[in-house]
Amino acid sequence: MNSTRTIFITSFNPFATRNILFSDAFKLLSRKSDLRLVIFCPDYKKDYFQEKFGGENVIIEGIKTELVTKQDIIFSYLGRSVINTGMLSLHRREIFHRNHKIFNFLFSYFIVFFGYLPFIKKIIRWLDLRTIDGSKLVNYFDQYRPDLVFSLDVFHMDDVHFLAEAKKLSIATVGMVRSWDNISGKGLFRMKPDKLVVNNEIIRDEAIKHEDVAMKNIFVSGMPQFDFYFNYQPVSREIFFKTLNFDPKKKTILVAPHGSRFFKYDWQIFEILKTMPYQFILRLPPNDKIDFASFKPSENFFIEHPGLTFQEGVYRDRELSVQDSQRLADELHHCELVVSYGSTIIIDAAFFDKPVVMIAFDGLEKKSYIESEKRYLKYAHMEKMLKTNCCWTADSATSLKKGIETYLAEPALHREGRKKLLEQELWKLDGQSGKRIAEFILKQLV
Predict the structure, then answer these.
(1) pLDDT, tens digit, 9 for 90 and up, residues 36-90
(2) Are residues 103 and 136 both part of a single domain?
(3) Average pLDDT in the chain
(4) 214 and 102 in one domain?
């Protein structure tokens, strides 16, 4: 009798790959001789995944991803509409601001009202499961007969299809919420997994409140991508600065731009920074472009775009490697402070006890609130972060410069806030998150 158990692992988002497959969670699972892991990834990345993760008991399958049907569009819309968070409410206002379709705007709030009725979410999920097309996955389930489906991103369209097919076949499912803003910004789980893995107690409480997940079915793990930092060894300052062609004795600032999908005026922030007598590392967002417009970087700017490109210009395409994590760690270790928007790099910076000046203005532009960077401060995850008093919020060019100068003079400012942020978001500061996830997955096979 064959005692080998099979786990399907979905990895369609580059950050899901980084969070789990490059962590101890995957390492520990892949070392189990009585386990067979089948990793599903985009078909054009199959060779990359085979090189990085393939092994004797690890099979890589590439599939065509995000083939969206009308059914997907309808139920994704319903899922976003029946959850009422500040972030989703702002999204509805943003859409109305762009298209001025008053009927669509009012109808979205009409659906929100029904979302408060407990049985509505159940009905939507029930209809979704019975109408979703799982034909492209049937052969994989027939061939491998998995004992468990482990979804690394419960909101991803392809993960939804895997979870749905597993539910139809009564196969156990475990899902992960990939990032701190997902529940408040993406709406209803179309397919609620049997068990849910979350980074911290904030996301746990959101899942209970908005997704109707029972507390007994939620496992709090911590953030596995941060485990890397606990054993990190920095390169020397001389070697690191040589790679930048920078002066190691000069103050250096790490800048994390927002990206063109969210903000068209990153280049204006660069122009403001250019007037200051410091060195700047511009670490571009892995899965977005930056509009540099008329900005011409001086010798005090180093531009870096982390990740490996598979299809130029395709959103969510670049894969981050262990080397990219090492590089970010080196940049954080050797810089004096970080300038960024409201992204998770603020948590990374806090881990290295680096002050953060967070941009909350529109460069040289004068935008209405619904178009402005200021609106992001009302997102639930941002409000919780700001309550820790972990960073300087810059609401103008003058404030940006003042924040930089203040932190350079007093780097310990807001140190207690940075500690509170780590406790809030990482849950446990022990470097064992990946191990906890692996152990939890194994328990689901008993």
Answers:
(1) 999 999 999 999 999 999 999 999 999 999 889 999 999 999 999 899 888 888 8
(2) no
(3) 94
(4) no
CA distance 245 to 248: 9
Q: How far apart are CA 377 and CA 397, in angstroms?
A: 17
Question: In this predicted structure, what is the pLDDT of residue 2?
Answer: 58
Q: What is the pLDDT of residues 215-257, one digit of tens each?
A: 999 999 999 999 999 999 999 999 999 999 999 999 999 999 9
How far is the C-alpha of 358 from the C-alpha of 286, rounded, in Å? 19
Per the structure, the count of domains in the chain is: 3
Residues 258 and 140 both lie in one domain: no
Of 237-251, 257-271, 304-318, 381-395, give the lowest mean pLDDT range.
304-318
Distance separating alpha carbons of residues 284 and 270, to the nearest angstrom: 12
Do 83 and 180 belong to one domain?
no
Residue-range definition of the domain harbouring residue 90: 70-118
- On whether both 113 and 146 belong to a single domain, the answer is no
93 and 166 co-located in one domain: no
Residue 279: other Cβ atoms inside 10 A: 23
CATH number at residue 416: 3.40.50.2000
Q: Is residue 36 domain-shared with residue 158, that is, in the same domain?
A: yes
Tokens of 169: 């076949």
Angle at the Cα of 144 (from 141 to 147), degrees rounded to 5? 80
Per cent of the chain over pLDDT 70 is 99
Confidence at 1, pLDDT banded by 50, 70, 90: very low
Report the interhelical angle of 157-168 vs 70-81 (nearest 10°).
100
Rounded alpha-carbon distances, angstroms, from residue 36 to 23, 56, 128, 428:
18, 9, 30, 30
Q: What is the mean pLDDT of residues 350-378?
A: 94
Residues 205 and 294 in one domain: no
Tokens, residue 366 = 């004068």
